[in-house]
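Hello,

Our lab assistant flagged a job as stuck in the queue for most of the afternoon. It eventually completed. Since we weren't sure the result was trustworthy after the delay, we are filing this so someone can double-check. Below is the sequence as submitted and the structure that was eventually returned. Let us know if re-running is recommended.
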Amino acid sequence: MTVALSPVAGAGWQFFDNSGAILAGGLLYTYAAGTTTPLATYQDSGGVTVHTNPIILDSAGRVPTEVWMTSGSAYKLVLKTSAGISLWTMDNLRGINDVSSVAWAAVTGTPTTLSGYGITDSITAATAAATYAPLASPTFTGTASAKDEDANTYNLGWRDCPQTSKAVSYELKLSDRGKQVLMSGTSLTLTVPANGSVAFPVGATIMVVNTDSTSLTIAITTDTMTLANSTTTGSRTLARNGMATLTKIGATNWLIAGSGLT
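-- returned structure --
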């Protein structure tokens, strides 16, 4: 038990009644602050021996032994005559130098917690991590990764072109940018969606590979797809084992180039 000496009656205190007469046999009650719930005090600094409640003063009006309070607790003391007549009440008392009940601001002059500054609605580490981007140019350790729009995870700093394989006709999605779309089915069509449907950012680049024995149709919808090094626009055909690169050069304009492309 951790205790601190009471600031009232603590060691050798002598009490008097309202007329100044020695309060022989007086009664000192100890309660939890602001209540009438008894709260124990102790006779020794080790918090071993409990006082009676009330503490009965001796013939000289003194407490029979020292009075120690539980650290971290606030007390209410009520003094009465031996006949039970109340003389005074003192509330919200704490032990002398009770560190557990003293705010850090009062000890150091500077709070060490957010609550010490009166901040009660502070942001948590979890909220910060979910809301804000990290510091610019951070240094990563281990294997850092990032997710695309489909929540696929890739290691940062990769030098490859992650592959998406399709065996059926397919329309490109935002998560395909920066990747290789491998088409491996008979007479398939790969569709480049209109900007109004899927708004790829300008500069988006997608590699297309056809491994099927039949040609692959790379279709454009309402936007414009121009064959590189020409003014030819419209859908294109990619031969078996052909490879083409799609690059978005404007809000509704794509450029396509490759081998096996007609």
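-- support follow-up --
The delay was a queue issue, not a problem with the job. The result is valid. The longest strand covers residues 236-250. The two ends are 89 Å apart (CA to CA).
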